[in-house]
Design a protein that fits this description.
The complex is a heterodimer of chains A (about 300) and B (about 300).
Chain A: H1 12-54, H2 76-84, H3 87-118, H4 124-136, H5 140-152, H6 160-163, H7 172-184, H8 187-195, H9 200-211, H10 213-229, H11 232-238, H12 247-254, H13 264-284, H14 286-299
Chain B: H1 2-11, H2 16-49, E1 52-53, E2 61-62, H3 66-73, H4 75-106, H5 113-121, H6 128-138, H7 145-152, H8 167-176, H9 180-190, H10 195-203, H11 208-235, H12 240-246, H13 257-267, H14 271-295, E3 301-302, E4 306-307
Antiparallel strand pairs in B: 1-2, 3-4
Classes of the chains: A mainly alpha (about 300), B mainly alpha (about 300).
């Protein structure tokens, strides 16, 4: 809304609009701010509730009206929640799965994405629409038979079902993202390298990949969030052995860890510990992240 | 790396096209293999399993169309369809409208806007498990935040998660907390609309509503369309919330379709029937997608192509 100042152009519609615009602006501004702040409070409320509850005493959680600033704040809830169940083990398990996934996805998705972007091979467009189609298929259809197959080959109760697939393309979304990004890199670089006698793979590895760092960072962040948040996967394949649980599984079963007395204060502390890394990574990678979503959202 | 170039050297297709073909297929081989082993293979296996009765322990028993007749007689199947439809038909449109409006709001040019954008976006990246746990507490009848607010403004408590009437609305409310995800996508789209278009409209006397109707929405229609499709597909596949917060209850009022399929296959080991359920869901989603593409797709305005017939 530009403040156009005083303009008399002799065009009645335009003049009215300008006058209206200036008057409207002030009302609008107030309205917008009310919505922003009001909505912001509503949005933040659950998170604030999470934090305050995590710092309350066992009985403080049950007080009505609820205290918003616990006094004194029970920071030891975090320690108690951490040790009540072996969250250290859970964290390590999650970390292992995460690292394997990161390696697998970054390598295979960039290989595949580069091919779709810069190598002209027969059937390329058809195959790419197959890639896109896999994004739309509900996971349920493959869920049951994959479980069956994995149990036949003895992969249930291991992390293999959660890690091996990442080496095979890493998911349509990542392939798509990297393909779009590779396409934005100048083709002349490859041409120049070819003239100098570089092999295609050399071009890929030594020239294109180093330039792809922002996109790779985005993929890495998405992969982190995917692995960290994954509940169904660990539920299917790791739930028999408590020592193999991930953080997600650990938190989900945490509620039943108390015989009779549900310690909401500890549960909230544990939940905060699960939420914190995701929020942290988001802040660290913010620029790449929002950009990545925008690219996929717009071009989708 | 040198192994692969050596391979290329040995096979050495004669034409550039041949070389590119070999290279291309080599590079995408991980995807092809993955597609076969983790996607097509399992999907076809499910297609085959549909005609058998198998509980993973004894031999599969051929039952022909038995699982399908079971489907028609299954009240829980119908219930889960109803539940999932209820959730989709409310959460998708409401969520889309709200996140669109939110994006319009977030386009407001002020220095603090980055703070607000982040604030509204963060809830959408909270892990599903933590979300489920947190909202279980928020909806707690005695000590939860929502009832505290209700009591604070003088209304009586609602038995959110224990009342079949309120359990689904509770989950829908929970899903609306995550509208920041859609908001970000809309926001990116909004920022792609050239400012001169609005200025030209202003000069012609267009008010806010007119600008919205004639500039913003048409130019945003591809993004809206995308969000609609992804929203529908996503809403049909809700699992964690139903599993962790209400376990499908109370009285099956939150028995999401995927939850029911999971239960059938992984808890009751009725593999054949679970495969039928899975494929039926696929067909439903496919039908919906085709429907939306055909009837809503025509309303989408593409900047380079104009309106499709």
């Amino acid at each position: 809304m530009s403040a156009l100042g005083r303009t008399q152009t002799g065009r009645p519609n335009a003049d009215r609009a300008v006058a209206r615009g200036i008057r409207d602006d002030k009302v609008w501004t107030v309205f917008v701010w009310i919505m922003l702040v009001g909505g912001g409070i509503v949005m933040a409320l659950p998170l604030l509730w999470l934090l305050t509850s995590s710092l309350k005493t066992e009985l403080g959680v049950f007080r009505y009206p609820p205290q918003w600033i616990p006094n004194p704040p029970q920071f030891q809830n975090y320690v108690e929640a951490w040790t009540k169940k072996p969250f250290g083990t859970y964290l390590w398990n999650t970390f292992v799965i995460l690292m394997i996934n990161e390696v697998g996805i970054i390598f295979s998705a960039s290989l595949v994405g580069y091919a779709f972007a810069r190598i002209d091979f027969p059937g390329r467009d058809l195959l790419f629409s197959v890639v896109l189609a896999t994004m739309m298929l509900p996971g349920v259809v493959t869920l049951i038979p994959r479980f069956v197959i994995y149990s036949r080959i003895g992969w249930v109760n291991t992390i293999l079902p959660l890690t091996v697939p990442s080496f095979f393309g890493g998911g349509a979304f990542n392939i798509f993202l990297l393909r779009q990004f590779f396409r934005s890199l100048p083709a002349e670089l490859a041409d120049a390298a070819r003239v100098d006698g570089a092999s295609e793979i050399g071009i890929f590895w030594r020239i294109m990949m180093p330039l792809t760092k922002p996109a790779l960072a985005t993929v890495a962040v998405f992969t982190f969030i995917g692995v960290w948040n994954d509940y169904m996967g660990p539920l299917l394949y790791l739930s028999k052995d408590v020592k193999k649980y991930t953080v997600a599984l650990g938190l989900a079963t945490f509620r039943n860890a108390f015989a009779g007395r549900t310690r909401w204060d500890l549960i909230m502390a544990a939940s905060t510990m699960m939420v914190a890394p995701v929020v942290l990574i988001f802040f660290l990678a913010q620029k790449n992240f929002v950009q990545g979503i925008a690219v996929s959202g717009l071009k989708g | 790396m040198s192994v692969a170039t050596g391979l290329l050297g040995r096979l050495r297709p004669k034409t550039r096209r041949g070389r590119n073909a070999l290279l291309g297929y080599l590079f995408i081989s991980p995807f092809i293999l993955g597609f076969l082993f983790f996607f097509l293979g399992p999907a076809l296996t499910a297609l085959w399993l549909m005609f058998y009765d198998w509980n993973m322990i004894r031999e599969p028993l051929f039952v022909g169309l038995g699982n399908f007749t079971k489907l028609f007689r299954d009240p829980l199947f119908k219930q889960s369809l109803k539940v999932t439809a209820y959730y989709s038909l409310v959460s998708v449109p409401v969520g889309m409208v709200m996140s669109f409006l939110l994006a319009l709001l977030m386009n407001y040019k002020t220095r603090a806007i980055a703070f607000f954008r982040t604030l509204y976006y963060i809830p959408s990246i909270v892990p599903a498990v933590a979300n489920a746990v947190l909202w279980s507490f928020i909806f707690n009848t005695e000590f939860g935040l929502l009832n505290a607010v209700l009591r604070g403004i003088g209304l009586s408590k609602i038995k959110w998660l224990q009342d079949p009437e309120w359990a689904m609305p509770a989950l829908i409310i929970m899903s609306l907390w995550g509208i920041g995800g859609g908001m970000v996508i809309y926001l990116a789209g909004l920022q792609g609309i050239p400012e001169p278009l609005y200025e030209a409209a202003e000069i012609d006397g267009a008010g806010r509503l007119a600008k919205l109707r004639h500039i913003t929405i048409p130019l945003m229609s591809p993004v809206i369309f995308y969000n609609l499709i992804m929203g529908i597909i996503g809403s049909f596949q809700v699992f964690t919330a139903g599993f962790l917060i209400t376990s499908g209850g109370p009285q099956n009022s939150t028995l999401f379709y995927v939850l029911y399929t999971y239960r059938t296959g992984i808890q009751y080991f009725d593999m054949g029937y679970a495969s039928v359920l899975a494929w039926v869901l696929f067909l439903i989603i496919l039908a919906f997608t085709i429907f939306v593409f055909r009837y809503v797709g025509g309303m989408v305005y593409y900047e380079d192509v104009g309106e499709r017939a």
